[in-house]
Amino acid sequence: MTNALTKSETIDSAIDRIGLGRFQWRLLAVGGLTWAADAMEVLLAGFALPGLVAEFAFPRTGTNATLFVSAAFVGMFFGALFWGPVADRIGRRRVLLTTVFLGVLFGLATALAPSFALVLLFRFLTGFAIGGTLPVDYALIAEYVPTKVRGRFLVYLESFWALGTIAVAGLSWWLFTSLPPEGAWRWVVGLAALPGLVGLWIRRTIPESPRYLALQGKRDEAREVLRQVAAYNGSAVDIGELAPPAGRAGTPLSALWKPALVRRTVLLSVTWFCLSLGYYGIFTWLPTFFRLQGLDLGLVYRNTLILALAQIPGYILAAYLVERVGRRPTLAGFLLVGALASFLFTLVGSGVASLVVSALLSAALLGAWGALYAFTPELYPTESRSTGMGWVSSMARLASIFAPTVGAVLLTSALPLALSIYASFFVVGALAVLFIGQETRGRRLSETAAEASST
């Protein structure tokens, strides 16, 4: 028997009635593959750096090294600001297909670049593409998942970052112990770009977000998409007339600073900036730090692989806690544990102890990222969800531009000072989360800024 409604309903209601099924799991697999590929692209700089040092003959911690590590982050900063609003204007699907394609193209171009200047250019362009993929992917998937499991599902998507980290660490370990460094780095960069091709091919079949379609006045198309989702899930749900959304499509970036959203935009910006500065400041330079401790490249990449594996428990715990205790306390708690682990790192001396504390830090920070990516899209209305995600993502990229420079100076000369600074940023990020005030666990996604301000 079908569950038919005789009056119009919201898209939230329709998605909740359809429920979780094959479509959402397939969407998670597709988005997760892209997410893992982007993680490989973002994090490969620290792994590939020894190869560029060998080929282009510059110091491991000098200006050229910092430029290489920072190039993709600079591109991601501009990409997040550019692609987020574009996705709210022309659609999530188009932007995702475009950015994934460009990411693969420029990633392969980096691997083949004959000069260091071109390496930097193509790394910047790769980052510009990825800067659109990451926030828009989250906006799209959040808009397809039922309310009661949305937080856990979004953490599952973020957990693919760990798989990408494991993949690039394992790939680097294998290639740098099998080939000369000046050849190994090109294979690492080239192979890291290839998973995006698979994700691009599969992603062609994912329809546009019904929320975006409804805001564009295409309610019949939105209803047809929802019917396809229900059929794919095997759900006997009849999708009737959809209520017209009260928002409007293509809101400008300035909408994030109107009274209804300004508080959460400011506090989320602080949180994203603080977490990113500490995370990239530490983990971008950890391979170099291990190398300066006297470890050979094989042991460096082995240790980094262990830290990548440590991320998985962090994600699992975050996926449980965001639905059990809420997004806000989970995020703040992981940030505070990250601050504690950073402080402990300054006290340990042996290689084993530093590896254990690093693993705790890795689990805590990636748990925080999972909770943050689940929380943020729920705090913005449909009309500006991609724009909001793009803005806060750009704040993270702004921090990641500074992080390699700070890390290069401090992690090689004043480790306790560096980690104390990073720990303080994690504490500030936790306080910002607590001051947001809103908790989105169990709440439907808001369609307008007015609804968002009332939660």
From TrEMBL:
The keyword Membrane applies. One of its GO terms (cellular component) is membrane. InterPro entries: MFS_dom, MFS_sugar_transport-like, MFS_trans_sf, Sugar_transporter_CS. One of its GO terms (molecular function) is transmembrane transporter activity. Residues 24-441 form the Major facilitator superfamily (MFS) profile domain. The chain crosses the membrane at residues 27-53, 65-83, 95-114, 120-141, 153-177, 183-202, 266-287, 299-322, 329-349, 355-376, 388-411, 417-436. It is a multi-pass membrane protein. Gene3D superfamilies: MFS general substrate transporter like domains. Keywords: Membrane, Transmembrane, Transmembrane helix, Transport. It comes from the Bacteria. This is Arabinose efflux permease family protein. The lineage of its organism: Bacteria, Thermotogati, Deinococcota, Deinococci, Deinococcales.
